[in-house]
Design brief:
Layout: E1 8-12, H1 20-30, E2 34-38, H2 41-46, H3 49-56, E3 59-60, H4 68-82, E4 86-91, H5 97-100, H6 110-133, E5 137-147, H7 161-183, E6 186-192, H8 198-201, H9 206-216, H10 224-235, E7 246-249, H11 260-266
Parallel strand pairs: 1-2, 1-4, 2-3, 4-5, 5-6, 6-7
Helix pairs in contact: 1-3, 1-10, 4-6, 6-7
Bound molecules: 1,4-dihydronicotinamide adenine dinucleotide.
Length: about 270
């Protein structure tokens, strides 16, 4: 059985084949969904999204997720092109200018901080508000954004993205209330293990905390493919009562104090 058969969606954030959104799109296509792919105009020029569009028989519509105008047009066009309201949306967008420019957490450039906040966190509210005002979601639809455990625990080099993720998770709870009440639409964030992608590898010391998380997690780090499977589960009708949650998809990392692997490393 294809669990997304007959469903229509919108997927933000597929840049190249390493992107989590890329894997979600391939999986959603296999599961029978029809969807629009979207990314920032500059990412469309640099990335390979057309390759993905061909593979998944989908259309691409550019939108800067910080622009309310772009988002309104995107939702409007998506509903028209797909022939009906949407059943699922994936927000897979993140970028810190401070991280990109090598600014430490204790030496932020606040223009960079605000830009990164707009792209990584506020854009989620803008996406939701646009879907809300344009009445673009079908009843019982599902909206998912991707987060990271640095929203709860400190990872020094994750920098200002920690605050962005905390804000993102809070939006899922607050907007989840309103969208649930009006349309039974559910909104969740998935807190994913470190994953080797363009955004992930941009964080200083990424290899170290990728390996550390892998050794700490009883199941090991969750792969991008498994993350895509979990997104599909949340888009499907099998999770109709799950909303306003931040769900850890991390092989057990977030609830582990120390693992035997790490004990061995520190035992002389
Ligand atoms: P990625 O670099 O493939 O995806 C990030 C996407 O954000 C890119 O497609 C980029 O073009 C898009 N983007 C940036 N600015 C934009 C804008 N103004 N408008 C529209 N789109 C814009 O990397 P990845 O890892 O697939 O990231 C997806 C999500 O997963 C992000 O929210 C990230 O923070 C989150 N995540 C990633 C982890 C990792 O270790 N890679 C771990 C936990 C969460």
């Amino acid at each position: 059985m294809k669990i997304l058969e007959g469903k229509r969606g919108l997927i933000f954030g597929a840049l190249d084949e390493k992107s989590i959104a890329w894997k979600v799109a391939l999986n959603a296509h296999e599961q029978g969904a029809k969807f629009i792919l979207s990314n920032a105009p500059i990412a469309l020029r640099m990335g390979k999204i057309n390759e993905l569009a061909e593979k998944t028989e989908s259309r691409v519509i550019p939108a800067d997720a910080t622009s309310v105008d772009d988002l309104n047009k995107l939702f409007d066009e998506s509903v028209k092109l797909l022939g009906g309201k949407l059943d699922f949306v994936l927000h897979s967008i993140g970028m810190s200018v401070n991280v990109r420019k090598g600014r430490e957490y204790t030496n932020q450039n606040y223009d960079f901080t605000i830009k990164g906040f707009d792209v990584s966190a506020l854009s989620f509210h803008k996406v939701l508000q646009s879907a809300w005002k344009n009445e673009s979601m079908n009843d019982y639809g599902s909206i998912v954004a991707l987060s990271y455990v640095a929203a709860q625990k400190t990872f020094p080099d994750y920098n200002d993205m920690a605050e962005n993720k905390a804000y993102l998770e809070s939006i899922a709870r607050s907007f989840g209330y309103h969208f649930g009440n009006r349309n039974k639409v559910r909104i969740n964030t998935i807190s994913q293990s470190p994953t080797i992608t363009t955004a992930g590898s941009g964080v200083k010391g990424f290899d170290t905390f990728f390996n550390y998380a892998d050794k700490m997690s009883p199941l090991g780090n969750a792969s991008a493919e498994d993350c895509a499977n979990f997104c599909i589960a949340l888009f499907s009708d099998l999770t109709k009562s799950v909303t306003m949650q931040n769900i850890f998809h991390d092989g057990g990392f977030s609830n582990t104090g120390i693992s035997e692997d790490l004990i061995k490393e520190f035992t002389s």
